[in-house]
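Q: A reviewer asked whether we had any structural model of the full assembly, not just the individual parts. We don't, so I'm hoping you can provide one. Inputs are below.
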Amino acid sequence: MEFLQQLKERAELVEKAFEKYVPQESTYPSIIHQAMRYSLLAGGKRLRPALVIGAAEAVGCDPQRVLPTACALELIHTYSLVHDDLPAMDNDDMRRGKPTNHVVFGEAVSILAGDALLTLAFQLLAENAKTAPADLVVRVIQEVAELSGSKGLIGGQVVDTISAGSEVDAQTLEYIHRHKTGALFRASVRAGAILSGASDLQLQALTNYAENLGLAFQIIDDILDVEGDSQKIGKPVGSDEKNQKATFPALFGIEAARRKAREAADNAINALEAFGPRGEFLRSAVNFIINRDY
Amino acid sequence: MEFLQQLKERAELVEKAFEKYVPQESTYPSIIHQAMRYSLLAGGKRLRPALVIGAAEAVGCDPQRVLPTACALELIHTYSLVHDDLPAMDNDDMRRGKPTNHVVFGEAVSILAGDALLTLAFQLLAENAKTAPADLVVRVIQEVAELSGSKGLIGGQVVDTISAGSEVDAQTLEYIHRHKTGALFRASVRAGAILSGASDLQLQALTNYAENLGLAFQIIDDILDVEGDSQKIGKPVGSDEKNQKATFPALFGIEAARRKAREAADNAINALEAFGPRGEFLRSAVNFIINRDY
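A: Here is a predicted structure for the entire assembly that you could use as a starting point for your response.
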């Protein structure tokens, strides 16, 4: 599949940058750097950093210009997974086919490793001032922080956590999805576009793209938790039901959920119209997300 | 005592800025904003933000110019306390005379509230671009992230955590103190100075000041945990000994520890020589820290 090759090329840029920016395991205190790298290098798809790069490309920019920011978005995603998996939160033992961070390193180190990944993310966002104007970098930091914060990513996690075990309405479910997944997709795409000097109109179109992509992604995630292959997705299926989590299939049924995902995917594709061939990577990301089985 | 009045004036600037920058309790999702404000507004001394302001004043700058950054440093300090108090970490039930965050809000919300305070801190650091040049703001973000990260504040916490229950040597103790307390003192003073356009020489002197101040502060903290008044310090005394924590008094005895604190305080005062009357607030902070009984 051609998209996977395109994704791999961008993921390789990101992995190489990690070697430059993330302290080696031997760096004192070793245990925290082991824990940070354990989760960061656990074989994620690198979708968010690829979106940062894809947005830069859509605006006609070299990926090198946004690479530290691309890494930062993956660090934020990883920290949120590490903290979400903790016993006090989702209490998950497996992630991407491996024992979760706290199972390997213990809860204390795991909490601190999440904190350190988040902190390093902001260091890398600032680092991007070496290849992009400082005023754009500051704007990106402000936006990424807002979208990752108590009214963004963390807000989604909070509502998800306090809603577990009770019935939620469609509005609450939408809030959770828009914030838990949508916020970082939006932050990734906007960060790549802003650093690349996108016009207001371009930024608006790419934001629209990101929101619909995030929605499609989360619905498919929910569906895979119901009928996916636990080998392929690297964690047990049915965990949402077990934890009585709010999901699209639980609320609307599988078929209606699939229809909603398809609709969001179409909206995402349409939002890219003005970018022509430069929007190719972002365009094929939509099809990948909607058709994935892991 | 004149210093307490000076500190109070600066703390009031900071508290007022919190009202502007930190979401109200009613902001959705309410529970996370309640938890953030609970710990942030629990009556801290606001020493770190006062150091940001004090450094700006030493260089001849208006406190207003560095106010979002001053708030950010207090947010980072507060997040680290919230996470340190968690059952998986120090497992403390009381802080500043009140039940700790997780006792009131539960572990899950408490972890997320810490994450959100840290994230908001970086948003405020970026916000400072409204009153200071963007290139200086980027530099401050980079430094604050580094000093708060896995080789700074979090590094100190990691070594402290993994050393608990076993004997530590003087070198490890110094690492813990230099990073757990020293890093944020250093970050605060440097941030205030950089945003105010300090010269390299001024920055070097203020860094020297901050390191010695941090050392004196931590030694006194250790001593108070042995012979302080639990009413005044707002938490039980003897908790370091209970947790077999590395401390200066445990390693050197109370008298030698007190001598070390005095020496560090003298070094801090000497580092301020070139600043004349503008260094007055930073100077009197030294005496306050060395003589405090809470």
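A: Points you may want to mention in the reply: The mean pLDDT of chain A is 93. The radius of gyration of chain A is 18 Å.
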